[in-house]
């Protein structure tokens, strides 16, 4: 059980570095979902099922969902502005 | 201060902070050895004092219930902030002109197959039921109000994915969702005040504790867990609706 | 070194989050790096409360005399995970509004107040 915990912590360290080095925002959201799932697995291995349930629902599903909604709304507005400029020309 | 200088300054400070932290962390007890007394004290007492088998939820909603009240109000004010920032403004003529035109690129997503639509719609009822089970059984098994609330709030998104936008809009924009958010937060504080009426301190467990392992046991823990579940559901549904409001209104204008 | 391994991982994740904030070119990238900064505290809390050979502190099917891990630290983390998501939603609402009024998502272009 300790070997699993040590391996998971190493994977978390590598994932955290990979997320901050990703430049495209949409790719980062998928990586954030994977990171949340890794955390849920770590909570489960370290004998905390309550927090693992919380992390799976929030950190792997609800948080990337909200970031994705914000990105979609910004892209929506940019496309509308570009369409208006093209029509105005 | 340009970019390169900022990065150099960050690396220098990170090295310094890291060195001091690692020197300090070397003095902590080794990993796997737990020395603090309070964890063992509560684990020995919680089942007998409160008749609740889930010790973590007994701590969250009873022994340290006041902290959870504060966190719930953080949630409430954050959702109020989101609604204030993203509500549609009275732009007047400019907003109406913008919303008349519609670029073709909004409409060209591929339609889902019917098997996926049927299956996703069928999962909606199951998700809501599962969320209610987790939110109300907080004192017995891992779960509780926070987790169950998020599970119920994620269920309407299944309807949106199955392209049933009309049902999704009808569920999510109903004014009773706002009422439930305030109601859940207020009910938590009211349960605390009920203890004051009897003469005990705020948020004491005054409802009769039942048999350990029963659903209707452990007094106010079950009641508070359900209130928190109601509030978290309403909070997440409101946030999702605020972000999607523009896109939903445009789709409704397109079809109708 | 293996005895204090999770504390070093917590410091590494914290510094990764800060590196993301300092280096970011897009406001949403900055918000996601802030989320990673927040998760480093979970690693630290979990490492403090763990006990080798301990069971989970749920007595639904084990008898109440067994050695368990610390439940207080888990109670701290449980509410924190859910509240963090809502605070990130508020930050993202501010990012969306800044994009609407300023027209850009780069942090360096939003330096001066307008209008």
Structure description:
- The complex is a heterotrimer of chains A (89), B (256) and C (115).
- Chain A is mainly alpha-helical.
- Chain A has helices at 2-21, 25-45, 49-88.
- Chain A has one domain (2-88).
- Chain A contains three helices and no strands.
- The relative contact order of chain A is 0.11.
- Chain B has a domain at 65-88 and 114-256.
- Chain B is 71% helix and 0% strand.
- The longest helix of chain B has 36 residues, at 220-255.
- Chain C has one domain (2-56, 66-110): Helix Hairpins, CATH 1.10.287.3510.
- Chain C has three helices and no strands.
- Chain C has helices at residues 5-23, 27-49, 71-102.
- In chain C, helix 1 (5-23) runs antiparallel to helix 2 (27-49) and helix 2 runs antiparallel to helix 3 (71-102).
- The radius of gyration of chain C is 20 Å and the shape is elongated.
- The mean pLDDT of chain C is 87.
- At the B-C interface, helix 1, helix 2, helix 3, helix 4 and helix 10 of B face helix 1 and helix 3 of C.
Q: From N to C, what is the helix and strand string of chain B?
A: HHHHHHHHHH
Largest interface: B-C, 57 and 47 residues
User: Could you say how many structural domains of chain A there are in total?
Assistant: 1
Q: What is the count of helical runs of chain B?
A: 10
Salient structural properties:
heterotrimer; A: mainly alpha; 0% strand; elongated; B: 256 residues; mainly alpha; 10 helices; globular
In short:
Chain A is mainly α and 89 residues long.
